[in-house]
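Molecular record:
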Amino acid sequence: MRRVLGFLILAAILLAIAFAIGAIPGTLVATVGTLTISLSLPLAILALLVTIIVVYLVLRLIGLIFSVPSRFGRGRHERQQRQGDRAITRAMVAIAAADPRTALRESDRARRLLPQAPLARLVSAEANRLAGRPEEAEAEFRTLTEQQDSAFLGYRGLLRQAIDQQDWPLAADLARRAEVAHPGAPWLRAERARLALRTGSWAEALTLTGPEAPRAVMATAAAEAATDPIEALRLAKDAFNADSSLTPAALAYARRLRLAREERRSDKVVVTAWTAAPHPELAEFYLDTETDPIVRMKRAEQLAGAKPAHPETHLMLARAALAAKLVGEARRQADLALAGGLDQRRVWLLKADIEEAASEGPLAGTGEAEGAALRTALRRIPAAQPDPRWHCTACGTDHAVWHPACPACGVLGRVDWVAPRRGENASQVALIDRTAVSGDVAAPGSRR
């Protein structure tokens, strides 16, 4: 009803306008050469309107004729676009279904229909990768990296290939480039952290890992790898502050301080670490500044004051006393270490050395008592507990030296100083030299 009413109102308005124009008086006269045209003014207005309409229609017709090729080309492009989109969809479905033949066929068709489309190149790369054609896939991924909008897709594809090939330095470089192309991706940050750990880029790993990571372990490794002395000292300090019971962290910091000629601060670090967790490598570092056996004994007594009742302290003093030819003191300290629960092979080996030195010394008696003590010590060695060693608590592999990440399984922060149980194989890698290493029993999982 409203439409009918609107049409009637519009018709009434048009009729009113027509009557108004028809009522306009006057005549329009035009002379062209000998031709004179005389029209009433309403008729002249009507002729002008008809002329305008005819000219408009002619121009529209001409435009339509000239637009036929472009319309045809646009229609063809739209058809190619639709067909190419369908080919991409079918290729993606084939890739998801692990159907390399269909994926290659549909991706090739998509590349023909949409040669410049990044998605067509992406499905082509993935199809070639699925079909076991890494060279073709790499070429497609590299082409994607040349376009700003699709660079991230290309770098991600190349990153996956590098990881599959276990080319970790290349993978780390590609991960950095991918983050430049598309910063802020959480999974990429985690991937970069894993690759930094895999390649030993500890300083980079420190910046990428979260607070749950063993930062003292990574900072220690970063300090050992740093070439700048100032940066190495800073990293070692951070590692020690994060965990003063981690012996490698304490040693890294103390070494850097000693290189900087800050002996007192270096000694203080070792004393603090010894208080937290006595370890034979700490004692070795602390004592190696002196060569005179008597002076070394006095220096060992200074370190012993930080943890006087600990079995490792007694063992350190026993070794220092034996080197200074203080056989009685060496025997006493070794017995205190045994009484403290350090029933290990290295302690009985030291006891054997002590009794052998006693039998050869200037105060040796008939040798009967010393000989019996020596035989007792040698007899106890096979039945004693194995010596402590660096041990990966994740995979169970032994190591001759500490590693931030286990070389066998790659797990970070699980190489700890532990003593195996009685009867367990003491070392799967190398036997620890009894004259260079000694230590107390540490619970599995503790870092010493």
